[in-house]
Amino acid sequence: MPKIQSKKNSTKKEVIIEKAAKLFMEKGFGAASMRDIAEAVGVEAASLYNHIQSKSEILQTICFKVANEFISHLEVVEMSNETILKKMEIIIRFHIRMMLDQYEYIYISDHEWRHLTEPYLSNFLNQRRSYRKRLGDIIEDGIQKNELKKIDSYVAVLTMLSAISGIESWQRSRKTTSAETLESSMVKYLIEGLKK
Amino acid sequence: MPKIQSKKNSTKKEVIIEKAAKLFMEKGFGAASMRDIAEAVGVEAASLYNHIQSKSEILQTICFKVANEFISHLEVVEMSNETILKKMEIIIRFHIRMMLDQYEYIYISDHEWRHLTEPYLSNFLNQRRSYRKRLGDIIEDGIQKNELKKIDSYVAVLTMLSAISGIESWQRSRKTTSAETLESSMVKYLIEGLKK
DNA sequence: CGAAAAACCTAACACTTGTTAGTTTTGCTT
DNA sequence: AAGCAAAACTAACAAGTGTTAGGTTTTTCG
Q1: B chain contacts of residue A182, beta-carbon cutoff 8 Å
Q2: Domain A55-192 belongs to what architecture?
Q3: What mean pLDDT comes out for the span A171-184?
Q4: Are the Cβ atoms of A190 and B193 closer than 8 angstroms?
């Protein structure tokens, strides 16, 4: 029977990854040491290796967990019977929500993937390229159906995605700008620039 | 008389910073070692210290060079007699151009500033906050003058800036998407979402 | 040329890195 | 209470970190 940890119904491995994520975000993957992570978990560095195989594995877990969530969601949207505009809105909202709910994981997957080692690095980049391609296809579909402004679909995808994933610096002013304001304002900005 | 280096009319210090920038971008500030930088310059690690004071100084130089360029430009735009919409377009175009011309420096200033040490870190963050505030003020001015859509100005600034600074991944597909296409498509996207 | 200055080199420092080995403690099941 | 496995510990490793000291070569310039 799998070992279940005290708090939060989470494995110790999950606790380690969670604490590591926070540190990777604050100091960067390279600058956050195993001893830092161990201290955050409340244990000696060597003890971490009872639960994980390497520092790299932590980064891999985080990056692919995020990638898989986005790909799964995209699959659902692609299959759905919504208008193109609605599809785009759904995707944008999903990205913003992910950013708000799982800020640290998303941040790491966005900024620290460079430190992945092969073959994980290539794998990750392939998945990302494919995701963007499929998003671009949706937009081109929308242009052809005359639902969207005529715009370079690749640039539009990049603009959209980076606009959303750059909300990092918003995080600390959560008090002055609520999540709802952020989401609705951003959707408004990003969608009304697309609508014909 | 100041020492002038062989190629490109640049000081050796500038060469070091240039090479370091490339490495900081590829591997991150923490993972790029002085010995890596030295090798790129074609010299031993210790010799670097004839031209710079520390690894930190390189990062500081890059971050504040970028910050100053943006602030200077903003000052000019603020003083000008353009419409608000035109002002925003000028700023957006400037950001995109900077991204294309000085990709490495901008990338580092955007992503590696976390590794600045005090008091430079606080200083940098203050400058950034002030820049965004002033950009937000322009937008609010535009809303009041009925030139722009009614939108949360802070969210708009963040959306705009992060959309632009996230073009990192575009860099390697320069062949398929020209700089002109990128700039015009992006301006179209970002401006027409603002125009009333 | 000859001297001063600038730039470079080798060697070393004190410290941190990820990780392994071997041992001891913890906590559950019989 | 005994036994067993999981998980913690201490100690150490080889390699890499930024940086300094001191000596040697190269460049500059009168």
Answers
A1: 152, 155
A2: Orthogonal Bundle (1.10)
A3: 68
A4: yes
